[in-house]
Write a structure and sequence with these properties.
The structure is a single chain. By secondary structure, the protein is of the alpha/beta class. It has one domain: 3-Layer(aba) Sandwich (Rossmann fold), CATH 3.40.50.620. The chain has helices spanning 26-40, 58-71, 92-106, 115-119, 123-129, 135-156, 168-181, 184-191, 209-218, 235-249, 253-270, 291-298; strands at residues 12-13, 20-21, 49-53, 78-85, 109-114, 161-163, 200-201, 276-277, 284-285. A five-stranded parallel sheet has the order 5-4-3-6-7. It has a two-stranded antiparallel ribbon with strand order 1-2. The protein is globular and about 65 Å long. The protein starts with 11 loop residues before the first strand and ends with a helix. Bound molecules: iron/sulfur cluster (SF4) and zinc ion (2 copies).
């Protein structure tokens, strides 16, 4: 197999397009595809002050690197890296350091917001409190609290948009989990716009996870690779295994799930969802209490 661009020995073939790349042509082709996704979905304006959610993993560090390159062509745009420190002993500290170092190397301002500062408890402390709820519940709690923390961080740095590194696999998993749990409405709401909510963009949404991993590897990015101690038994892992097997047997299934999610979101945007403010913390929500406050109240912490 030869690279379709330069004719050298290839190392990767995109199963969904048939394109073939060698090691030196792949990173640029990856960057070009992300740039095209941003343009075709009109994700960003040339004057954007863009907060980038950087966890320190391969996806978010790849995103920071790609966006830093793109930003060079837009002198009126500005990037700010934002990291949420959930407070997971022996895990998060290293990732926060890697995020900080990457931001520094790229000359990008870096802002960290912690669960401890925002909610008064680290995730470890909340997990202790919620003992008996099971690990699924720890991840669900973490996800809800992180979403709010990212929005708060993006607002604090005056961002006009917030970019996250969710890839095609993440999006397909979220769509299926939303359907299985009956919470697909929450995904739709997340995509909506509301006062106090920094609009989100996901430049990797149509990029398979394998491709962001290849990019991080070929660009020699230093990222955190050991898994979160709570990850082992999350529902997402089961959904991931199922979807990987289905996509292997029926290529393109993840893209189909993504487009289903986009259609549902589009339909929702046409209708009006009344967004108000949370009675306790003032964050935007369509209910009396936002989900983070509801969950913390459920643990007897509010
Ligand atoms: Fe949070 Fe679960 Fe992800 Fe760990 S695996 S960072 S607990 S969502
Ligand atoms: Zn090549
Ligand atoms: Zn609230």
């Amino acid at each position: 197999m030869k690279c379709g661009t330069c004719g050298r020995d290839a190392f990767y073939r995109r199963p969904y397009s048939g394109e073939v790349f060698c090691r030196s042509c792949y990173p640029e082709a990856f960057e070009k595809r992300v740039r095209e996704a941003i343009t075709s979905k009109r994700m960003l304006r040339p004057t954007e002050r863009l907060a980038v959610g950087v966890s320190g993993g391969k996806d978010s560090l790849s995103l920071l690197h790609v966006l830093a390159k793109i930003e060079k062509g837009f002198p009126s745009a500005k990037l700010v890296a934002v990291t949420v420190d959930e407070g997971i002993d022996g895990y998060r500290g290293e990732a926060v350091n890697l995020a900080a170092r990457s931001a520094e190397e790229l000359g990008i301002e870096h802002h960290v917001v912690s669960f401890k500062a925002l909610y008064g408890y680290t995730l470890d402390e909340l997990a202790q409190r919620g003992r008996g709820l099971g690990q699924h519940a720890v991840c669900a709690l973490c996800g809800v609290l992180r979403r709010k923390a990212l929005n708060v961080a993006a607002r604090e740095v005056g961002a006009t948009k917030l970019a996250t590194a969710h890839n095609l696999d993440d999006e397909a998993q979220s769509a299926l989990m939303g359907l299985l749990r009956g919470t697909i409405n929450e995904l739709q709401r997340e995509a909506g716009e509301a006062p106090g909510m920094v609009p989100r963009v996901k430049p990797f949404a149509s990029t398979p996870e394998r491709e962001t991993a290849l990019y991080a590897y070929l660009r020699r990015l230093r990222f955190q690779s050991n898994p979160c101690p709570y990850a082992g038994t999350s529902i997402r892992n089961e959904v991931r295994r199922f979807l990987d097997a289905m996509d292997e047997a029926h290529p393109g299934m993840k893209f189909t799930l993504l487009s289903t999610l986009e259609k549902l979101t589009y339909t929702k945007k046409q209708g009006k969802v009344a967004i108000g403010r949370c009675r306790l913390c003032g964050e935007p929500t369509s209910r009396d209490l936002c989900r983070p406050c509801e969950l913390l109240q459920g643990l007897g912490l509010l």
